Amino acid sequence: MAKAFDATTRQLIEMGPAAWLEYLGIAVPDPARIRVIDSNLSTIIPEADRVIWVEDPEPWIEHLELQAGRDVRFTDRSHLYRVVLESHYQVPVRTTLVLLREAAGGPELTGVLEKRYRDGTAYDSFRYDIVRIWEQPVERFLQAGLPVLPLAPVSNVGPDRLAEVLTAVAQRLHDEATPDQTATLWRATTILLSLRYSREQVEEIVQEVSTMWLGIRGIEDSWLYQDYLKGRAEGMAEGRAEGKAEGRAEGRLDGTREDLLRLGRKKFGPPGDAVLTEIGTIDDPDRLAALLERILDVSTWDELLAPAAP
After folding, report:
1. Domain identity same for 112 and 11
2. Could you report the per-residue pLDDT of 225-244, keeping only the tens digit for each?
3. Which residues of the chain have pLDDT under 70?
4. How far apart are alpha carbons 247 and 187 in whole angstroms?
5. CB–CB of 182/214 below 8 Å?
6. Report field, pTM of the whole predicted structure over 0.85
7. Residues 226 and 256 both lie in one domain
8. Cα angle at 36 between 65 and 58, to 5 degrees?
9. What's the confidence (pLDDT) of residue 248?
């Protein structure tokens, strides 16, 4: 699942980097001077989400990371990206973390990372911006450039307004986008919906809007949903094929953590920072599976995470 979201969000950034900078409130006099550049610099670091080059009189780079799942190593990883990018391109690098859902956040994400010696003296610091999509007003996305539009349904909008918001998204795609753009952006909208809603809810919500505005007969029969399901199935198959040694793949763990948090919220209420941190750092798929089964037998988050009795 994580790979599906990663591929989708990277595609959105590639489609219109200027639209993303405009959404983030970063002034750029000439959008024609903005381009996505290769972020896979070497085998030292994995590929960053997307790196945007801004050809100002004094050029600079925007490193944009979109996260659907918890990443407790984000600050260390992005600090390394910044150092490598600055060394390679010899320009300043600005980092923005865009959190797509509440479960992707955590108390470690403060916007500042400071490295200190044992005596407490700071010897290095790294600052980054944080955007929490679920806190953002939906109007910002509905009025943004087309590549940002698919995030509207996962912004600060309740289920009672979802059909209205999806209709507004579909109307803009119908009026402004090419057929290829419409296909890509509506598929991205559908995939991002699954961050907050179940498959059944996605089917019910999307079917009427897609049929009316985009000529898609039904979500189950449409190529966009089948493509999504295929990606999900391939991800699960890949996880099984990797075997026990590779069973801690990020996508599989993220999906199990999300299931655990979603069911826990329904039974126990919102988790605190300590709970989010503990669940976010569990790398053992067997333990996560055991916690999922245990939800039925306990009454609080503390009971759930307490060591099992021998």
Report:
1. yes
2. 444 445 444 544 454 454 44
3. 1-5, 38-49, 211-252, 308-310
4. 28
5. yes
6. no
7. no
8. 100
9. 43
The two structure tokens encoding residue 150: 């698919």
Number of structural domains (the chain) is 3
Domain boundary among 117, 135, 153: 135
Q: Are 83 and 116 in contact (CB under 8 A)?
A: no
Structure tokens at 81: 């990206």
180 and 222 belong to one structural domain: yes
The answer to whether residue 153 is domain-embedded is yes
C-alpha closest to that of 186 among 156, 147, 157, 217: 147
Domain membership flag for residue 43: yes
